[in-house]
Design brief:
The complex is a heterodimer. By secondary structure, chain A is mostly beta strands. In chain A, strands 1, 3, 4, 8, 9 and 10 form a six-stranded mixed beta sheet that branches. By secondary structure, chain B is mostly beta strands. The chains are: A mainly beta, B mainly beta. Chains A and B meet through strand 4 and strand 9 of A and strand 4, strand 5, strand 9 and strand 10 of B.
Chain lengths: 113, 113
């Protein structure tokens, strides 16, 4: 699975959009981009995933560049409860489900009042 | 919401003792993971089961760790003998074909003294 690169930390003002970048320049054609987050002392939580097209759900939006070498997770109106470590992971699709997830160090997002 | 249940939540044990951690995946899920998290190493994949068969346990120290799924409702991770360097939070996660996004449990915090 391709390696991803994320900034170690970011700050965001409460109520503003949080844009978290991820570089996955070696991603292959059958690898999806997944985002998880981990709030302090809890298990990781799935947020969203995508292959080529931009995706949106109730939690976030995922923007993937046309060359698929990078992506951005957008939390449209960040709240204090969004303070967490955000992980960007690339993984192959296995018949409609994810393969194993290899977590990097992620981005620690701090949402400030 | 369906949950992945891990027991115990916390475990303190003496070096050399056997430790067994249990995980109840979400009913109907056919994929189970075990991860270990420490400050130094982050989230490390230990083992990966699909339809109760081990697919990948390359991340697990084989001499002291063992992972099994005696049935579809129970996954176990055993350490024998335990060592202080095994102190970590151990997470279990489950998922299902056609349903992207794995669900993680709350973890077992293991302290070996």
């Amino acid at each position: 699975d391709a390696k991803t690169t994320q900034p170690p930390s970011m700050d965001c003002a409460e109520g503003r959009a949080a844009n978290l970048p991820c570089n996955h320049s070696t991603i292959s054609g059958n690898e999806y981009v997944y985002w998880y987050r981990q709030i302090h002392s809890q298990g990781p939580q799935y947020i969203i995933h995508g292959l080529k097209n931009n995706e949106t759900n109730e939690m976030a939006s995922l923007i993937i560049t046309e060359d698929r070498k990078s992506s951005t997770l957008i939390l449209p109106h960040a709240t204090l409860r969004d303070t967490a470590v955000y992980y960007c992971i690339s993984s192959r699709d296995y018949g409609g489900s994810q393969g194993n997830l290899i977590f990097g160090k992620g981005t620690k997002l701090s949402v400030k009042p | 919401d369906a949950r992945v249940t891990q027991t115990p939540r916390d475990k303190v044990t003496e070096m050399g003792q056997e430790v067994t951690m249990r995980c109840q995946p979400i009913l109907g899920h056919n994929t189970v993971f075990w991860y270990r998290q420490t400050m130094m190493q982050g989230l490390e994949l230990l083992a990966y089961f699909r339809n109760r068969a081990p697919l990948d346990d390359s991340g697990m120290p084989k001499d002291r760790f063992s992972a099994e799924m005696p049935d579809a409702t129970l996954a176990t991770l055993k350490i024998q003998p335990s060592e202080p360097r095994d102190s970590a939070v151990y997470f279990c996660a489950s998922g299902n074909d056609g349903n992207y996004g794995y669900t993680f449990g709350s973890g077992t915090r293991l302290t070996v003294v």
